[in-house]
Amino acid sequence: MLKYLFGQRSSYLNVETINKVQSLCRSIENQIDENKLHEEFLELFHRLLNSPKEKSPRTILQEQFHFSLNKGLSQTHSQGIFLDYGRIKAAGQLVAIYPGTIYHRHFDPLLLASIRNTFLLARKDNLIIDGRDQGLSSSIYRSCHARYPIYDITWLSKDIYQHKNPLTLGHYINHFPANGLPNVTYYEFDFNFNESQQDLYGFVPNVRYADLDNEKGMPSAVLISLRPIEQGEELFSCYYNVIQQEKQS
């Protein structure tokens, strides 16, 4: 994955630091079991769908994954994402989802939406996710959602307690500071549910700008832990992390 940045590279991001971070990310990415990820999403989404209305999505997340996320004052920006409950016990665990409109790099008109937009995340398959939740990006997502209303739109709310899916905060995770290293990494993931599970797409916070023939499921990106993360820690990724390599057999 590669998150687009505007402006000059921070002075502390020398080749040695970037290589160290990318090596760390690769070591974790190559161990990810996508079948396990799929099963975790199946369980969470089924519980979100079938739980009593008085039980909040955050409570359901805490029961299943033993952590929850919240916004707060960041070390590096006006706001970031923190672990506000529980802990993430190990590297390789699901932490968040990166929401937004899915664009095909060579087919869809992204130019206007990309202006001064630091929420663009590139996948290796020429797809770009626009995770900005305001301005033109928000309007485009709402317009696409009107055509494909099966997917989640509640992630656009500034009030995270209104989110149907409590993991849809990946777009507010900041780049790691000079005095630290990232504790999460981006990982490409496609949501694919069978015919009897179509209701589960209601918790997927992505929508395509336009459908091409024979496209199935919904491409997305998730954030995976690079180490154990304790309650109160801010989550940091690496915006300069290059696209993940193919897994070693």
From TrEMBL:
User: Gene3D superfamilies attached here?
Assistant: SET domain (2.170.270.10)
- What is this protein's name? SET domain-containing protein
Question: Which organism does this sequence originate in?
Answer: Adineta steineri
